[in-house]
């Protein structure tokens, strides 16, 4: 189980909490998901290799590692979920200011799922069994207030992924 306290990520082992290591000193970070192998994903803010931003990260063996990035020069995003195969999903802000759903495959490839939804803000929220689920928002919608459009992608090794379609907004 993960949580956060004073902008620091915590992993719970039973009833014993432990702080996760920082990617950059003094930055805020949050743990958002864990798989059965104990790999944790989330985000960390700060300066890494001279670049300041909000980095999607994975903690392996307690050590944080930024995930590969694409898009904006200043990184901004989250790693939201990880499956037992090691595939990670989340989102990154692109150079044009759009947020795009992303898949970091277990093999290390970064796939821009949001490219299949031009003009929409998209966020991958869950991954498992070769399926990525997420949400999208039209221009001008507020992800904190407005109802999302539900979306789904199927990951296929030969074609990388297919966009399965839009679903009705949540009632």
Describe this structure in words.
This protein has 171 residues and is mainly beta. It is built from no helices and 15 strands.
Observed structural traits:
56% strand; 15 strands; four-stranded antiparallel sheet; 171 residues; globular; mainly beta
Residue fraction in strands: over 45%
According to DSSP, the number of beta strands is: 15
- The radius of gyration is 16 Å
Major β-sheet, in short?
4 strands, antiparallel
Structural class: mainly beta
Distance between the termini: 30 Å
**Helical residue percent band:** under 10%
- Biggest sheet: strand arrangement: 4-5-6-7
| Poorly predicted ranges | none
- pLDDT averaged residue by residue: 86
In DSSP terms, counting alpha (H) and pi (I) runs of 4 or more, how many helices? 0
Order of helices and strands: EEEEEEEEEEEEEEE
User: What global shape is seen?
Assistant: globular
What is the element layout, followed by pairings?
Layout: E1 2-5, E2 8-13, E3 16-19, E4 29-34, E5 40-48, E6 51-60, E7 63-66, E8 77-82, E9 88-93, E10 99-104, E11 110-112, E12 121-128, E13 131-137, E14 149-156, E15 160-167
Antiparallel strand pairs: 1-2, 2-3, 4-5, 5-6, 6-7, 8-9, 9-10, 10-11, 12-13, 13-14, 14-15
